[in-house]
Structure formats: structure tokens, C-alpha cells
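User: Run a structure prediction on this.
Assistant: Running it now.
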Amino acid sequence: FSDVLGDLFGMGSTGRTKSRERRGKDIRVDLEIPFDESILGAKKEIELYKLARCSRCGGSGGEKGSKMNPCATCQGKGNIQKTQRTFLGSFTQVSTCPECLGSGKRPEILCLQCHGKGIEQRNEKLEVFIPKGIRDNEMLKISGKGEASTVAGAPGDLYIHIHVLPHKIFRRQGDDIVMQLPIKLSQAIIGDSMDITTLDGLLKFKIPEGTQPGDILSVRGNGAYTSSGYGRGNLLIEIKIEIPKKVGRKMKEIAHELNKEGY
């Protein structure tokens, strides 16, 4: 019963009144990032228009050098108590002091820019670190980077909803990265060694002889970073064999010979 009364009237189980601190609002923003940055991580700068600490007084609410005195309205408590008598007895309701906004102090000279509130609406740039291996639709939480509160309150949090843009060559499959690799018919038959471009740069890749269309060849450790940030999936290379639409006389002769041999 005392807990219920505490929630309703600001009283703890011991009967002592509690001061309720005003907290700044949380902010949620959407951020689009390229596919390669979702795999390798990145550093981004975002700009927010939000309630922030006053740029003139730094959040104190007073002019520079102004002396801070106990609030006359709440006698430095930061809250105002109102006692209410009912048939159940006397109950004390607590509310934040409207003059000092919960800080319990008031500057002798109010800030000329925020008029003692300690906050103002303005643009603020923020550097955000995108972790390696982040997935599409994941949410980043940055504590304390939401909207600022009054001089006595804590700031809210910033939530960043990540949207990973599609890539022309690569796509993600779990912790693996999948790509298609077109090769010539001769390379599929006798094998070859070639340089392919990956998200980590150029990679020397060996095509074994007798490679079939649709074969998936794996390169260990060249996939996406795991959610823990340690270890990586694999790069899966799907083979596509290019068949020329126009062939010369020599190519036709070779094809006829292969046909005779049962190939």
C-alpha cells in the first residue's frame, strides 16, 4: 500500500518525499550507410536539431561569473511539497520547482540567451562510429546524446536506425558475403588464376579445372564480421560461365572436336 502511495504522491516506503528528476527526451533518427561500411565499419557525422545545453551559459542558467543562490521558492530543495488531508490521513505530493527547474539553485543574473533554463534549440553535429558487421535494421543506442533537459535533469538517449544500401556485386547471407563471378568456358575447363575485387581489396583467386556452372567456391574469413566483432564469415563465389553468342570458325572446329569426344 505504501508503494502505491509512493507512486501517486512521491512518497517512499519510509514516508520521505522523493524529488523527481526531469530527463531529456530520447531521439530516434534513420541513417543510410553503404554496404561496404556495414561490413568494415565506418565513422559518420550526423547533424541533429534538438534541445541542447545553452551555448552561452553551458547549462548553468546564469551569466558568466554569476553567483548561484538557493532558490527562494523551494528553499534549495528543488521541489515543492504540498500536503493534502484525506479521510485516510495526510499525504504529501511532490512536484518539481517551476523556478529552479529542480536544481535548487538560481543564478543572481539569468543567462541572456536561455533566460535561466540552461537549454536551447539548435543544430548539433555528432560523430558516430558504425561497428563492423552491423546488419540492416539494427538500432544503435548512444547514451546521453538525446535532447538535453533542464539544469537539474539528465539528457535523453539517441537511437540510430541503420539502413544498409544494396550493393551491385555483393549481398549478405548470415555472416557470409555472396558474389557472382563470370568466367570463360576455357577457364572452367582447364582452370585459371585471376585477381578479383573484394571489399578488402584485390584477392588472388584460383579456379580449379572442371568447374561447373553454379558451383560455389568459398574463401575463408573474407565475409562479414560477426555480431561480437571477432571473427568473420566466408566469401562465397558463385560461378557463372559465359557462353559467347558469336563464335569464329576456329571455335566452331574446336567445339565439333569436343562433341566427337563426347564433351
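The longest helix spans residues 249-260.
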